[in-house]
Amino acid sequence: MHKSLFxxxxxxxxxxLAQAPTPLTAHLDKVSLTxxxxxxxxPNYTINYEQKPVVQPSRLGLVFQDGQGFDGAxxxxxxxxxxxxxxxxxxxxxxxNIRNHYQQLTVHLRQKAAPGRRLDVVFRVFAxxxxxxxxxxxxxxxxxxxxxxxxxxxxxxxxxxxxWIPGDYDTNEYLYTKSRLSAVDNSAQxxxxxxxxxRVAPDAQAVAxxxxxxxxxxxxxxxxxxxxxxxxxxxxxxxxxSHRLTARLVPDAVGSKAFLHAPAHTPWRTVVVxxxxxxxxxxxxxxxxxxxxxxxxxxxxxxxxxxGVWWEMQIGKSDWKYANSLDTLDAKGQLIPxxxxxxxxxxxxxxxxxxxxxxxxxxxxxxxxxxxxDWFGNWKENVFDFVTPYPDFNVQxxxxxxxxxGVQMIxxxxxxxxxxxxxxxxxxxxxxxxxxxxxxxxxxxxxxxxPRGEHHDGQWMSNHFVRVAEMAAKxxxxxxxxxxxxxxxxxRTYPNWMASEAGRGNEYNAFSIGSPPExxxxxxxxxxxxxxxxxxPGIFKLQNYEPTGxxxxxxxxxxxxxxxxxxYSPLQMAADLPENYNEHLxxxxxxxxxxxxxxxxxxxxxEPGDYLTTARRAKGKDEWYLGSITDENARQQPVKLDFLTPxxxxxxxxxxxxxxxxxxxxxAAYQITRQVVTSKSTLTLRxxxxxxxxxxxxxx
Length: 700
Ligand code: NOJ
Ligand code: CA
Prior knowledge:
It contains 14 helices and 36 strands. The chain is an alpha+beta fold and 700 residues long. This is Glycoside hydrolase family 97 protein.
């Protein structure tokens, strides 16, 4: 509406009115967005949820290296509103159909001063939040430009509770802190987190996104970004007195933020909001803001579960490396084996046998290729070539053996942070995977990045991760990236980019103080908002699994089962050792049964930091699976089974904590019971401290 009026006024040559036809608004259901130009010509936006302020008037803008960015006075030259309501199907995921319903407001702005550059800001207002981005149209006055800062702010109306990790340029693998915004200070945590190899967090008041907030007025708010391509990750500086958050972009090696050429645009800045915590987890806003799949043929992309020669290295039972040193050779000039090399043919076959017996799709093997003697800490190139196996890893024999058993091998490419080196070998590395029939690869970037001075979460690396996904797609290989930038929904655009780590996974329980029981109740509200994580659940031996005997996985065994439902990934590991699973094959049955691809998902109950219950319907089947977890507190969780098909009887198999289970004292105590249920039944699950429950429902 305001468009046509405005165009008419402009055409009539009424320049006085060209200055201030703001505020402009867009809304959908309870969410409304207002755009305005301040008296000084600076643009700002406001978000409300019903009558409640979510984001108070907050600045928009960018600073450029040439001093002529969008930080000064701007004029509004036009705007458009459009409504979109469409439905699309992801290649894999938590639901079969995704509704993309929003009202879009585009504002066209121009610098008042010379050179009069033009900028668009596009807002999309959904029923569960807002996304907006800056767009730089093609124009004479703006060819190449360098972004030095983004001025985007999120002015929060009160001192919310925040679930945060430090804003670190190189890692997201921290423990979460729950505090008021006014108490955010990451310095002590950054300093003591020695288990994380590379930490660069120069701003003690910076936090990473996804940032989860809870307001005292009952609103749940999540701030993140969508479609982070050709741009650094956004972190947030917290002004503790005013609760104002300001975008901080991860710099490159010379301190710039992004090199762009118009036409170009930034990623979407996202604010998901609801008065129900469950809605935050059900939100598809971030996926909706990503581009549709660039891959036309996606038949070859297959979700799967896998085991791996992996946890045994994490817990020190075996080693990635074959020899102790590259510099000590035997009389024949060969490496001297330590005898502790995990990726040997016989051991790999043992995992293949286990996967075949239990119908798991894949086997990951780490430490199979030469280089691991020298992989960590040297900040150098050419450590790995990604195609040369150690002498005791017979790649042909292993591939044939796996094929004969109907199991697929998963490749591992650790780059030790030398991304340039990996790019040089990408093509041969993926040809090698094709030759030996590996449909997926886990990549890794432990250590400081090469090109030296670049950060894991800067513009250069964000482009690198996309290049890897594209090259993998060319070879029909799916990817699981460790130590990558945290996801922003790009798996919609590159569905073969199936998972990332980019967060604190189960592995921290192997080599550090681990993660407390509340950790997995926070992760879905933070790290998982951007997409699937290779969290590596399924540890059954929860105590005495590593040499010091002091560490503990801070959950019960039943909770490890529940994680297969509460933490979504289309690539899901059964992370423990076959011998530990063999001790509890009755419980392992749940891991064997649980799908990794779903037609429907219901978030039954959720509170960040406290509890989560999720139910999901298997792809193409009327089978449901439920996971329920709690933090350190025991809990009774009632679950109405109204998601089941009415009139049908189902056999429910309930894998629950035993009466005396407790993550500290008795973590492996579980009980498995069976019950006939219908959509009218209610289950009451008893969750132990640090506990959980997993349930499968199959029609009778
Ligand atoms: C870190 C990864 O997160 C872990 O899973 C892997 O085993 C090591 N790097 C070695 O690549
Ligand atoms: Ca890691």
